[in-house]
Each structure stands twice: as C-alpha cells, then as structure tokens.
Amino acid sequence: MAFLKYADAIYVGGEWAKTDQREAVINPADESLLIEAPVGSAAQVDAAIGAARRAFDQGDWAFMPVIERQAILTRFLNAIEARKSAIVDMIVAEAGSTRILAEFLQYGIPMKHARRTIEVAARPAISSLPIELTPNAQGTTTLGTGVVSREPVGVVAAISPYNFPFFLNIGKVIPALAVGCTVVLKPSPYTPMQALILGEIADEVGLPKGVLSIVTGDIETGKLLTTDPRVDLVHFTGSDKVGAMIQAQSAPTLKRIVMELGGKSALIVRADADIQKAAAAGIMGFTTHGGQGCALTTRHLVHNSVRPQFVAAMKAMLGHIKIGNPVDPTVNYGPLIREVARKRTEDYVAIAQDEGATLVAGGKRPAGLDKGYYYEPTLFDDVKNESRLAQEEVFGPIGAVIGFDDDDEAIAMANHSDFGLSGAIYSADSGQAYRMALKLRTGGVSINGGAGTMQSDAPFGGIKRSGYGREYGEDGLNEFTYQKVIGFHAE
After folding, report:
1. CB of 8 within 8 A of CB of 1?
2. Structural domain 9-261+467-488, CATH architecture
3. Has 260 been annotated as catalytic?
4. What is the pLDDT of residues 453-486, one digit of tens each?
5. Would you kindly state where each structural domain of the chain is located, as residue ranges?
6. Catalytic residue among 94, 103, 260, 471, which?
7. Who contacts 230 (Cβ-Cβ below 8 Å, separation ≥6)?
C-alpha cells in the first residue's frame, strides 16, 4: 500500500530533498516492510534549521496578521481531513494501532484540538497594563502605562515519539505555526510517515517555504536540533531518560524547553466506588495501545475491602479482549511497536514475579500469533508500591494492583513516585474524591471518568520526571511565545 507521494525524500525548507540513506519501517502487526524510509543527513538537518531561521527572521510568517495564518492553517487541516481514510490506514499500519483507536484517539482528538487551537490563536496578542503613578528624578510624578505583547519565540524543534505520532505531530506543529513560529519536525524512526505526509499537505496548501521542515533520523539528528544555537525552543515528547539528555544538550545555548515525558499514574479506587466502572477504567489504563501511553493509569491503588472484587472484575474483562492484527476492525488490542518493547515487557513480568507479586492474567505471548510483536495484557495483584513494577515506567501492557486502607494512605502512595503526569479516582463521594484530587502531585486527575477524552482547552502536562510546560488550550499556545513589555508615559 503506497502511503506517500514522496517516499524517498525529506521535506527541507519547502522542498523535497532526496537522501542517500534508508531505514526500514516495519508493520508491527506482521513484521512486513512498509517502506524504506529516507533518513536525513547532517547537512540536510542543518539546511532545515537554516531555512526555518530565515523564514522566521526574514519572512512574513511571524508578522502576518493572525487571521491570515488562521486561514492557511484551516486549509492545512481541511487538506488533512480530505486524506482522513489514508491517514487512519497509515496509523494502523505504522503504529500498530487498532482501527477504533486510530479513528477516535490517534486522529479524531488531535484534529479537534487543532481546530480549537486555531480559534484560540485569535486571542489578543497585546494587553494593556494599568496606569501607574511613579515618582521620578525631577521631583515630579510620571503618569505611565504600557502594554504586554505576546510574540512568537522563533524557531521550534519539535521531536515526537512513536506511540501517538500523528496526534503529537499535529499537537506540536499547529500551535507553533499558529502564533508565528517556524518549525523543524523530527519524528521517531519507527513512525516517519505520519510526519512526512504533513510535508505533502504543506505543499498542497501553499505553506510559505521554510515555515515547516520535516527531517528524519536517529539520536544524532535529534542532537543536532537540541544543540544548534539557531533553534529557540525544543518541544519534546518521550521518555524521562531522553528528556534529561535533551535538557543537558540544550543547556549550553540556554534554549527554552517544553517536555512531556513518562508517567506511572495512579488510579485510586475507594471502597464506595462502582467496581464495574472502576475495573473498566483500570483495563483501559494498561491495555490502551498496548500500554504504550505516558498518561495511562498503570498503578491501581484499590481499597483492600474491595480489592478482590476489583481484581476479579478486571480478570473477567480481560477474557473478552480480542488480540490480533489491527487491520481487522473487530480487534481491540494490537501489537507493541517493536521486539525491544515486547522484550522490555517480558523483563518486567519476570521482575514482578521475583518481587513477589501475584500473576492474575496474561504474562506470555499469545498463542497462534507467530508474526508481530504481541504480548498478552498482563495483570498483577499484591504489588508493593515500592517495587520496581510500581515505580518504573514499563510502557507496555502491565497493570499493577496495590492495596490501601484509608484515603491518606492512598494519597501518600499515589504521590510516592518520580512521575506526576495523570491520575484518576473512582468514588461515590465525588466531594471527597475532589478533596483527594487537590492533594495529588500530578498534572491532571479525572474523577469517575472525568469530562471526556482530553478537553481541547485543558492544559496537559506533568511535574517531576513527567516534564514541564503545558500543551493545548491557551496555556499550550503560550508556550510558543514570549512576553515583551512596551512602556510609555504622558509628557
């Protein structure tokens, strides 16, 4: 299946540049070859940064009236919508996503966010300061005021991972462009197609040259982007370990960084919770996209009085999961991205067993699936909160059930983590759940299912090793700007 028009080139400064090096992109469901993807050279990455710098410093994009940028970006999103079917097929094949997840979460939600981002970008860029009386050196009083101008930060290096590539590519590119920045996007080597197709769309809608470039490559390509002094902001999603490397690489040039990193988020189930609803949420917390999600709730802190019922309910639900190639629309659980991810999951199963946890379900490769990187959704009970399974991010399909006896203990256990990205509470007492949510050290908490999947105006991000900065909504848009104060006074 041909997904790309330009399958042998990367997008540099608004032009398609052929590359000498290729890297195989594998369908994780059956290990078939999807494409020999182009890999950018150091010279091409340098050219992309240079094109972005020139487009920002010398072009019209940064100073274009916001209504004109909105019109171009709306055409950009409309062109994406026209390719929806092909893009969803690409997400299924390249990321191993189930079709329903590809259509709803991998594609639908980021497009909803992107439309809203373009709307929010129309907010006033300039706000007035209060009038102020200030004594001056002449012995009189100055009547002064001023304005605060929000302006684009400059050249953005956007680095995205393999788990939700289209989602995260759109979530970085659209807000950056909407405020007037220029962007160099680097996708994961596992999922380059969902980035390169944006170059084809940029061509189609006439995005000014240099405003968007898309380069491919490995860690060295990323290092070029994070160390180059022409880059003003690095916007990264990935693991905390790579985030720490990027912070160190960017330090000499004092770049601004926005990082959304890993998580080990807690689902708290109080004694009065609806066990069926809580268990269903628990299942989603470690089976969605094979557990390959930073904000998933993989730690299940359950009141000991209802823990047996909760575990039994989840075990029963796991029996209804259909594992297989996600090209089949009836499949609701697909493969992990590569063998290294499956091996990591297997290692953590062994670690959990060595630590004394009780295996409830899963714990092996599914029978009959000899091709593809499949691993059964795996549930452990009797997990200690201090254990490696409870404290380290697996990024695979393992759920850990941990018992507690009172709310204070649950809060302390949830906060006992190097991460702080997401969280959830299930309780019949929503008021008490809210009080508990206020005490959780994390970037977001949903109560009894929350307000839906990622509200477009809700800032998303974490604390501690889950990163810093926010995405989406006005806060996310503002990450791509800086504030300039212009003061003046009446003579």
Report:
1. no
2. 3-Layer(aba) Sandwich (3.40)
3. yes
4. 678 999 999 999 999 999 999 999 999 999 999 9
5. 9-261+467-488, 266-455
6. 260
7. 49, 50, 52, 53, 155
